[in-house]
Amino acid sequence: MKTLDKKSLFWDVRDIDPQKNARFIIERILAFGDLDDFKWLVDRYGVEKIKDVCAHSKVLDRKSASFWNNYFRRNA
């Protein structure tokens, strides 16, 4: 199943545009996605875009934001 078609990630959205809704998609996958979703995210948007969204997100909970910021600090 393609990442954008997963009801577990986008249960509340009918139509989603990967370009227009990039920030929303990145935040949602960082909060609720699995490893395959994260790999898709990196392939689609690149590490720098994901890092930027993560660093400035007002949507990610504190624990998720801290995890991802630490991950990117060490691995990217």
Automatic annotation (TrEMBL):
<protein>
    <recommendedName>
        <fullName>DUF6922 domain-containing protein</fullName>
    </recommendedName>
</protein>
<feature type="domain" description="DUF6922">
    <location>
        <begin position="7"/>
        <end position="53"/>
    </location>
</feature>
<dbReference type="Pfam" id="PF21956">
    <property type="entry name" value="DUF6922"/>
</dbReference>
<dbReference type="InterPro" id="IPR053830">
    <property type="entry name" value="DUF6922"/>
</dbReference>
